[in-house]
Specification:
Layout (H helix, E strand, L loop, with lengths): L7 H10 L4 E4 L7 H12 L3 E6 L3 H12 L7 E6 L6 H12 L4 E6 L10 H11 L3 E5 L11 H8 L7 H8 E4 L5 E5 L2 H10 L1 E2 L3 H7 L6 E9 L3 H13 L1 E3 L5 E3 L3 H12 L2 E3 L5 E3 L3 H11 L7 E5 L2 H13 L4 E4 L13 E5 L13 E4 L6 H8 L9 E9 L3 H26 L1
Parallel strand pairs: 1-5, 1-8, 2-3, 2-4, 4-5, 9-18, 14-16, 14-17, 15-16, 17-18
Antiparallel strand pairs: 6-7, 10-11, 12-13
Length: 428
């Protein structure tokens, strides 16, 4: 028995999915996809239910079922996380378990994890789908790099929608570049868009709030520009020119690959670099000083989240915040998380921003970030809720540095995703 009342747009998604058996719930984060999924589970009444999610998503689903859904029919439920799919023996057991059900169902939560179609993770979940009568894919970011991200999602929820990868490639992708194998553009977007939205439901948080008669969401973005100090700038410029620099009399840093060079230059923007000896060397406090200034002024006494990419940055940020007399909660790959922010300040590793609720805060400070649009998009929505009406994003950006390059890469993918997911949808 489903115990919640769905909002109008959630009810629309429910009724569209109900007769199909395979469907994508692609509403933006915080629009409430799990209640729609719970309502469909109650309507379809599977005898075996497998939910695959990120590690921090398990507690979210357990809470959802406690609050919303009473299994008043015979149903075996298993909730697992994506990393567990590396265990091939357990995967084979799950295949057999799904095959033994008459009405098996698989839910792929945070389904953007499937987009790399050749990965074992993606292939395994799609094989779960082949053994299931009902299939749901939940993600607020189904497209990041381009429309090719959607193929694996639809191969899971409805393989006939786009057909084989080879058929999809011929019909929708323009190829070129080295040996003609690189994706250089898209074609037949109107047809793609029609099929995409026929078997999925998409709504933005702004649209959902507007339907409920709520005030427009006010989001403010502030870039705090920072100049590196003499030492950090010297090392940065030497690495940029020569892929080598001397840190001090005891240590040096060498980048033999371009990708290593980019990582080390990015670390320098935060005031640290990992030397050839493996030691984390502090080379400047410019970005930490700007963070401290912000915490003492505009954010004094408020609850907020600081986002960083590297572990050594997270440790330094935690020391700084606690020195200011505030309690901290670190949310990173190896940490346990209750599902909600329980401290004055959350410190979030950017790759850990899925399936968590940080809506107790109303501001995010990006100390450092990565190239992933999905990580960026997931993280930005963590401080939002359906009832939030304002949020502030601060970016601590080193001038004339790779900070700017990575920022532009992430936001350009954001613009592409908005075009494909929302602009074309509104033209239908």
């Amino acid at each position: 028995m489903f115990r919640k009342k769905l909002r109008p747009y959630q009810a629309e998604a429910f009724h569209r999915a109900l007769p199909l058996g395979g469907f994508g719930l692609f509403g933006e984060q915080r629009t409430g996809k799990t209640p729609i999924a719970s309502a469909l589970i109650d309507a379809w009444k599977p005898d075996r239910l497998l939910i695959v999610t990120v590690p921090k998503g398990i507690v979210v689903w357990e809470k959802e079922f406690r609050e919303s859904l009473e299994f008043d029919w015979p149903c075996e439920v298993r909730i697992i996380h994506y990393p567990s799919l590396r265990n091939r023996k357990e995967v084979r057991k799950l295949y057999r378990w799904l095959e033994q059900g008459e009405r098996s169902m698989t839910v792929a939560d945070e389904a953007h994890a499937l987009k790399r179609r050749s990965s074992k993770q993606s292939k395994t979940v799609r094989n779960f789908g082949k053994r299931s009568l009902y299939r749901l894919a939940l993600t607020g970011t189904p497209i990041a790099q381009g429309i090719h991200d959607a193929w694996a999602l639809f191969n899971f929820i409805r393989p006939s929608a786009f057909g084989t990868w080879e058929a999809f490639e011929r019909r929708y992708l323009k190829k070129g570049g080295f040996r003609g194998k690189q994706i250089i553009g898209h074609k037949n977007l109107k047809r793609f868009n029609t099929i995409f939205h026929r078997y999925s439901h998409r709504i933005t948080l702004r649209e959902a709030r507007a339907q409920a008669g709520k005030k427009g969401l006010i989001s403010r973005k502030t870039i705090r520009w920072i100049d590196l100090g003499p030492k950090a700038r010297r090392i940065y410029d030497e690495l940029d020119r020569e892929m080598y620099s001397i840190i001090n009399d005891e240590d040096e840093v060498t980048a033999t690959l371009v990708i290593t060079q980019a990582v080390k230059m990015h670390q320098l923007c935060g005031g640290f670099v990992i030397a050839d000896s493996g030691t984390v060397r502090p080379v400047g406090r410019e970005k930490l000083n700007e963070l401290e200034k912000l915490c003492k002024t505009e954010l004094a006494g408020k609850r907020y989240v600081v986002v960083a990419r590297y572990v050594h940055e997270i440790r330094a940020i935690r020391r700084l915040i606690e020195r200011l007399g505030r309690t901290t909660q670190v949310i990173a790959g190896g940490t346990t998380f209750s599902g909600q922010l329980d401290a004055d300040v959350g410190i979030l590793q950017i790759a850990s921003g899925s399936a968590i609720d940080l809506a107790a805060a109303d501001s995010i400070i990006f100390f450092s970030w990565d190239y992933s649009y999905i990580n960026l998009d997931q993280t930005k929505f963590r401080v939002l809720s359906f009832d939030t009406d304002r949020v502030t994003y601060y970016w601590l950006m080193v001038r004339n540095s790779i900070d700017e390059t990575i920022y532009k890469a992430g936001t350009s993918k954001e613009n592409l995703a908005t075009l494909l997911l929302d602009t074309y949808r509104k033209r239908r």
